Amino acid sequence: MDMNIVLLPGDGIGPEITEQAVAVLKKVADKFGHNVTLTEELIGGCAIDATGKPLPQETVDACKKADAVFLGAVGGPKWDNLDGATRPEAGLLGIRKELGLFANLRPAKLFPELSSACFLRPDIVENGIDVMVVRELTGGIYFGQPQGQEVRDGIRYGYNTMVYNEDEVRRIARTAFEAAMKRDKRVCSVDKANVLEVSRLWRAVVEEVAAEYPEVELSHMYVDNAAMQLVRDPNQFDVVVTGNLFGDILSDEAAVITGSIGMLPSASLNKSGSGLFEPIHGSAPDIAGQNKANPLASILSMAMMLRHSFNLIKEANAIEDAVQKVLREGYRTGDIMSDGGTLVGCNTMGNLVVERL
Ligand code: NAI
Ligand code: MG
């Protein structure tokens, strides 16, 4: 397969971790006979320094032409005095919008090798955690109209509107069912259908989509219960699909139970199946340039790219297996050292994964 990929290494630890993720990608392509074309572009602080803008037009054009985009991280203290649209983070928001990314996939995976770093009870996490939160990203209460503040009869009001149309629900539901087909074939749709009208539509449309996927088991859960169940027994879930607001909260909750920000990848997809793949952590200015960063979140983001944008399941699994092997052998970057092991730097961690492939 030919893969045309744009790399946006960005700032801070972004370039270091991108380098390791790319080495892994190249090794997989080699091993499985794929052809990867890589183009590097600027985003964030480095783009501001070079062009005055966090998201140069050249970057947007290249990303739109690519089959998939990989992003390291953006931002850092150097640009903290800039405001609003001129900040590095504006580049990230901009590219998400330009690419029409409506689905955010955040796996909360705890490798059993790291289970002692998790604060949940040992008997709950001894086999690790593996949950995928699929969050709708472009609709719901963050964007619904009307929204605003006004004074009526001398009293101040503030309001937002949670609105979804059936097309928006259908496409995020399909994304979740497609993801479930590549996993344990279970989808839990999270809503507040006991109170919210918009949730009743959500639920009805998800049921319709479920009919297209007879192999996948669908359940529904109210969001308040889901928040509780995620920490009580995370492994009852395979794929969780939900709207923008509920997904914002639940994906952070799911991430924190796994313990380390340096381990978690993410994917954001658009309707053409292309997407942006990035670790969930930021640019970690405190450790940037010191060969201390954990490259595994980035390496695992490459695995998500292969699985979700290119449907290369064997290749994605090979990367995840190699990561697990390295962890089982006891190699750790500083952020995952809590249970001891052999301390290695960013480069060595990347090399080890490449070798185990
Ligand atoms: P951060 O995720 O960069 O760092 C938080 C803590 O986690 C730090 O102590 C850092 O050293 C550690 N950490 C993060 N990634 C790690 C890794 N791969 N290996 C080992 N340790 C790691 O979040 P923070 O400090 O809030 O933000 C720093 C900068 O990053 C800010 O400018 C922020 O705006 C930006 N940021 C960018 C994001 C992105 O590009 N998607 C996301 C979050 C923050
Ligand atoms: Mg959030």
Automatic annotation (TrEMBL):
Cofactor: Mn(2+); Mg(2+)
NCBIfam families, per the entry: leuB
Marked site: Important for catalysis: Y142, K192
PANTHER family associated with the record: 3-ISOPROPYLMALATE DEHYDROGENASE (PTHR42979)
Family designation: Belongs to the isocitrate and isopropylmalate dehydrogenases family. LeuB type 1 subfamily.
Positions of Mg(2+) binding: D224, D248, D252
GO CC annotations, alphabetized: cytosol
UniProt binding sites for NAD(+): 76-89, 282-294
Subcellular location: Cytoplasm
Main location: cytoplasm
Annotated protein name in UniProt: 3-isopropylmalate dehydrogenase
Function: Catalyzes the oxidation of 3-carboxy-2-hydroxy-4-methylpentanoate (3-isopropylmalate) to 3-carboxy-4-methyl-2-oxopentanoate. The product decarboxylates to 4-methyl-2 oxopentanoate.
Gene Ontology MF: a single term: magnesium ion binding
GO biological process, any: L-leucine biosynthetic process
Organism: Halodesulfovibrio spirochaetisodalis
Keyword set, alphabetical order: Amino-acid biosynthesis, Branched-chain amino acid biosynthesis, Cytoplasm, Leucine biosynthesis, Magnesium, Manganese, Metal-binding, NAD, Oxidoreductase
EC id: 1.1.1.85
InterPro entries, alphabetized: IsoCit/isopropylmalate_DH_CS (IPR019818), IsoPropMal-DH-like_dom (IPR024084), Isopropylmalate_DH (IPR004429)
Assembly with partners or alone: Homodimer.
Chemical reaction(s) catalysed: (2R,3S)-3-isopropylmalate + NAD(+) = 4-methyl-2-oxopentanoate + CO2 + NADH
Alphabetical list of HAMAP family matching this protein: LeuB_type1 (MF_01033)
Pathway membership: Amino-acid biosynthesis; L-leucine biosynthesis; L-leucine from 3-methyl-2-oxobutanoate: step 3/4
Binding site residues for substrate: R96, R106, R135, D224
Listed Pfam families: Iso_dh
Cofactor note: Binds 1 Mg(2+) or Mn(2+) ion per subunit.
Residue ranges constituting the Isopropylmalate dehydrogenase-like domain according to the UniProt record: 4-353
